Amino acid sequence: MRSNLELAAIIKRFGQQYIEKYHPSPDKMKVLFDVLQCRTSVLGGHEEHCDSCSQVRYSYNSCGNRHCPKCLASRQALWVEKLMAQTLPVKHYHIIFTVPHQLNAICLFNPSLYYKILFAAVAHTLHSFGYTHYGVESGAVCMLHTWGQNLSLHPHIHCLVPAAGYTLKGTWKPIGKYEHFLYPVQQLSDAFKGKCLDGLKRALRKADALNGFHTHLQAAYKKKWVVHCEPSMASAEHVIRYLGQYTHRVAISNDRILAISDTHVTFMAKDYRDKAQKKPVSLTGVEFLHRFCQHILPKRFVKIRRYGIYNHTTKRNLQLRFVPDESEVEKKLSGKREVETTPERIKRLTGFDIGKCPKCKDGRLHIVRELPRIRSPGQHVGRLLAAFLQ
């Protein structure tokens, strides 16, 4: 069954071994607990009956953790809808800022500090290039990814950048005179490299840890950094739906997991060294969980950020309006939220009707009783907790 090929099944089988070997932090343990309990009787739920075929279904609550592969589809759809009402109706560029793996040691030393500096370097680079190349205040919606296809640590930032900016004279100006890129990518790479390494050196010196990472920094200086810019896209709606694929993702989705044995986990991954061909990758179960947990973000860390004209504070201070009927769009969205139920909104945004009977396809499911949460931890959760407290 497909349910046996999920992240939760891997945690059940290898979680205790992983905890005993790596002794993860409480934050990582909470993610493992949440994923393990997601949509199980431990979290409670409700009993539903079909009004046509009398089918009985038990639906259990989701954990809501942002690292859970089961809890992201609806969030992504809601995010896309909201951003579409707040985006300039112009073409956009998709720019990806990457850093060399020589800096991964610093990332593991202090992930929150490292990711904060990455965001700052990206924002400062795009801000300065907007003024030096076009004389405008530009903007960007940036989102952090930390993984490669094989679950390796590979921090990089995806950016949605509009081909328009706001001048000092208070007028809108189209930008992007190049066909395939917004700014010269080599210049963009060099500027980003300098700002990022300078920020890391300052932060490590302040933390009295610069000497410990001197070798890593020098190796990163010698590497050629890569900033990738995809060609501009037609409409804002098309861009946002495209970028929505990158927003609410986790290191691995359940549909990529191919097999789970007594010792190993096999999953599908793209090999970018071989024309992005999809190939199976096999790791020991403990190593799989170790790599997955490397991508658990620090508590309360914001992984999607807005800069420049897309920043709410800048937009308010400059009194920017992106479209003439923007207020009407907001009112329309607010009106939909008032009259729509949660199932109706999910159906409108995703096309999936959670209230339709999965058996007869004609009837509607109605809740007949609530199922309470189970106060004591389940068998698998109890074993993980015991291993963590050892």
Give an overview of the whole structure.
The structure is a single chain. The chain has 390 residues and is an alpha+beta fold. It has 13 helices and 14 strands. The protein has helices at 7-22, 26-37, 73-84, 104-109, 111-134, 185-206, 214-222, 236-247, 285-293, 312-317, 326-339, 342-350, 379-389, and strands at residues 45-50, 56-60, 92-98, 136-137, 139-147, 153-162, 164-167, 172-174, 227-233, 257-260, 264-271, 277-284, 304-308, 365-371. The protein has a 5-stranded antiparallel β-sheet with strand order 9-3-6-5-13, sandwiched between helices. Strands 2-1-14 form a 3-stranded antiparallel β-sheet, with no helix packed on it. Strands 4-7-8 form a 3-stranded antiparallel β-sheet. The chain is globular. The relative contact order is 0.20.
